[in-house]
Amino acid sequence: MADSLAALGTQELLVSIFFVIVAISPYISAKRNGTSFALATVLSLMLVSFLQFTNSFISGVPMQFDWPIGAFGIKPAIMDDPGEAYRLVSSAWLHADWIHVLSNILVISLVGIPLEQRMGGKRWMLVYAIGFLGGNVAWILSHPDSTIPAIGASGAAFGLLGAYMACWPDDEVEFPLLFLIRAWPIWIIVFVRLGLEVWQMYSIQSGTAGEGTVAHMAHVGGFFLAYSLARPIARGGPHSPGHEGEAGTSSRRESFEMGRLDSDPWKESGKMLEGQAAKVLSRLRDEGDEPETRRAWLEELSEHTICPVCDGEIVAIVSGLECHIECNISSKHLNWP
Q1: What are the residue ranges of helices labelled H in 111-246?
Q2: Cα distance between the two ends of the chain
Q3: Interior CA angle at 330 toward 327 and 335, to 5°?
Q4: What is the pTM of this model?
Q5: Neighbour count for residue 97 (Cβ, 10 Å)
Q6: Domain 3-234 adopts which CATH fold?
Q7: What b/e readout covers 158-182, taking b as 16+ CB neighbours within 10 angstroms?
């Protein structure tokens, strides 16, 4: 056991064990129920941050200076000790304040969920882990003598952006960007978010900005490691990259039109659509022979109906000319047409 853990008191060790149990419980539930690992990650980060905040409030110590930060954050100067390797993982579940954790959860939920629907839960978890490991390693290598703890899931969040960029850069996801909340192509989101990181790093390096408290190098490291490994990881998943958009528009249209509309999952499950949802489905069948109109009606349908399996939200997944709708909880529930 690492000296830093051995130095903890009995109460702190018990709290640490409780932290671990709370952190992994959402993943166990997601595995058992076949639900989203991205949503499980959001819940895990929220629960751990709540415990961390509560512990800080009870002790009267500011959240960013509480003992879990010192015990579980990345300290590059001591990371040559194999006994401290646990910090590479544990640091990704701690945050300096609620703004810190919520900013990461924003990316993990809005970008991570559609990415998981693309590549599948297990591959998504691997990419997520690569992101925070890549970010932590980049921070260690760039600040080898630092004893200031580095924490947060930002490397993982940027890793998700890197993986999405590598595999499906033209996918559109709803994201707050440039003072607007709308569906943006992944490449634009990456251009803005990564561009800001590079600009901030340059400002610090050139002496036009202070050191700050943000580990920009960890963000960049998580992004590029996930970007470099994402395509081989994603191959063989629900939507393998590398085939869409490579054979020209005509072949994409042919592939797009393979989805049949004569049957639907609501009718098959005995939950016939009614009202506006039934009208939209009828228009989809009548006019959905062209990619653009099919996409428009599928997006409309996703706003007027729910999953026939779990009654969860329906989302439209767009890639180039192609579009289909999925259950936001699990693509196993609904993936149509």
Answers
A1: 112-119, 121-142, 154-167, 186-205, 216-234
A2: 52
A3: 50
A4: 0.73
A5: 14
A6: Rhomboid-like fold (1.20.1540)
A7: bbbbbbbbbbbbebbbebeeeeeee
Checking if the pLDDT of 276 tops 80, the result is yes
SS3 168: coil
Closest CA to 139 of 201, 70, 220, 229: 220
pLDDT tens figures, 174-200: 999 888 889 999 999 999 999 988 888
Q: Is the pLDDT of residue 18 over 70?
A: yes
In 3D, which of 89, 88, 109 has the Cα closest to residue 42?
109
Which are the contacts of 242, defined by CB distance < 8 A and separation ≥ 6?
Answer: 231, 235
**Spatial CA neighbour of 147 closest among 220, 97, 212, 73:** 73
In the chain, domain spans: 3-234, 249-336
pLDDT at 252 over 80: no
